[in-house]
Amino acid sequence: MHRIVLQREIRSRASHKALSWFSSYNLFRELNLVAIESVHSLPFATVEAEGISGSQPAEVQNLVQGKWTRSAAWNTLVDPLNGEPFIKVAEVDGNGIQPFVESLSKCPKHGLHNPFKSPERYLLYGDISAKAAHMLALPKVSDFFTRLIQRVSPKSYQQAFGEVYVTQKFLENFSGDQVRFLARSFAVPGNHIGQQSHGYRWPYGPVAIITPFNFPLEIPVLQLMGALYMGNKPVLKVDSKVSIVMEQMMRLLHYCGLPAEDVDFINSDGKTMNKLLMEVC
Question: Could you give all domains of the chain from N- to C-terminal order, each with its CATH number?
Fold first, then answer.
């Protein structure tokens, strides 16, 4: 009698265990499907890293005065895997730099913010950094940028992911109050009562950032955010061969609250960039 009861209990437990396993499998499968769908629906992205090809070429645009713009001239990049043209870069020539000159000229020498002007922007950039760090920590976002780096740069997945990881940690480090701590000032006692000399960390105003091809994400983001933290208005030029990575990163930063007018993003050759710098100087 005890043996019959025991067998029934074992069968009941086995049935419940099988049902539980089947439910878990279905839940796991549903979560995977959601994850796959979400990779193709990142709220900031305009391309799919895995989908860029000769039949579905990506476009890289310019950003000036808060607006994304195309150009009359396109620089076509070929896929290093098969030689097909797979990325079109809207390049600005010498006749198209005036909007960039005007944009940089609007920024005063004392910058967009400084210790006396709009100090709340230090906290704004702390919030932007926190949100961007959170986004890059999401597996689907980090995988997106890792794959995108691989499409234009000869790196292994681990090497490309290293760029994303370092960038994410940098942004994490400058979250919250850390940005305004960068602007910490000092005071030195004078010769008599009431006399002091004060030193302040001050922005340059309009600045330019030109970065190489070998680190498409890490170098531009670290240099760009450092300039923005201190109140500068940068124009960013990345090597056109890899500029799609930073273009998508700019869109992520906008999604995280970066004011669109704070940064200009230009694709051009060296001669055009030199002309732009000479015009602003």
Answer: 58-280 (3.40.605.10)
